[in-house]
Amino acid sequence: MLILDKEMAFISNYLAEKEYFMNDDLRKALSYIYYLIHKKHKSKSLAIYIANEKYKKIINRNTQEYYNFTTEYLWKMYNSRLAHIKNAKEKFKIWDLNIRLKHYGMEKKLCECGCGQEVKKSNQRFIHGHNVRTRSKKEKQFYAKLMLEKRNRKENIIKVDFKSLKKSM
Fold first, then answer.
1. What is the pLDDT of residue 82?
2. Domain residue ranges in the chain
3. Which of 14, 29, 106, 165 has CA 20 to 30 A from 59's CA?
4. Nearest-10 Cα torsion for 18, 22, 24, 25
């Protein structure tokens, strides 16, 4: 029986996506570097050197050629793997929080325009004015035309000159 906690499963899946096109032997070399650093307590530079020496001798079975991983390349790939793991841990926290909020019905209702802001009332779909973002170009032009027509009609409003009103008082 395989027992994994949720975070390890999430990180493994995230790494599998990021390292999908990576060579299998390179993945093994990176795992070996991790083993040397964390289990055998070697320094990072020594672990990379040892892994490089070990994997120089492994032959690619498909092409019958030796892999030539340089220490600089292994260093770069190991650092990128550590960055992927760090990003996966951050994304897991966000994902875990969202799952818990959904489960307990405490999820915030977000604006449907896609801005990511929270809607104040639960019966509303959009933040005031954000529904315009979901309209097509023709709809936007139609409503702009209507508003321009209404603006032209407002010219009949009586204008008051407040400066002359103050002087008369």
1. 94
2. 6-103, 109-169
3. 14
4. -120
pLDDT-based confidence at 92, cuts 50/70/90? very high
Give the single-character DSSP code of 66: B
Spell out the residues 6+ positions from residue 37 whose beta carbon is closer than 8 angstroms to its own: 43, 44, 47
Structure tokens at 122: 């639960």
* Angle, vertex CA 146, rays to CA 143 and CA 149, nearest 5: 150
Q: How far is CA 36 from the centre of its chain?
A: 31
pLDDT digits (tens, 9 = 90+) for 123-153: 888 888 888 788 888 888 888 888 877 776 6
Q: What is the C-alpha separation between 139 and 126, in angstroms, rounded?
A: 17
Half-sphere exposure of 16 (CA within 13 A, CB side): 6
The CA distance from 66 to 62, in Å, is: 11
Residue where the block lists tokens 């702009």: 144
Please state whether 111 falls in left (phi above 0), alpha (psi between -120 and 50) or beta. Answer: beta
Task: Tell me which amino acid residue 52 is.
Answer: N
Q: Name which of 23, 33, 32 is nearest 61 in CA terms.
A: 23
